[in-house]
Amino acid sequence: MSYTYKGRVYSIKSPVKSISVNKQNIVVNDQNGTKLIKFTNVNDSKNFLDWIYQV
After folding, report:
1. Out of the domains of life, which is the source (predicted)?
2. Would you say 55 and 1 are in contact if contact means Cβ atoms under 8 Å apart?
3. What distance in Å separates the CA atoms of residue 38 and residue 31, rounded to the nearest whole number?
């Protein structure tokens, strides 16, 4: 599955091993490795979390 934010595509492969949240930054550790996603506001990071928990 992939998530597009501001023109960049982030590929997330299940299972997600861990998620770390620090305000606007989210680190996702999945089967492909660790990815840092920097958001410009808290609402965007919350939308990402809603998306990843639904999948």
Report:
1. Bacteria
2. yes
3. 20
What is the DSSP track for 19-44? EEEETTEEEEEETTEEEEEE-SSHHH
Rounded CA gap, 15 and 41, in Å? 26
Give the angle subtended at the CA of 43 by the CAs of 29 and 41, to the nearest 5°: 85
pLDDT below 50 — which residues of the chain?
Answer: none
Q: Read off φ and ψ for residue 44, nearest 5 degrees.
A: -65, -40
For residues 42 and 24, the answer to whether their CB atoms sit within 8 Å is yes
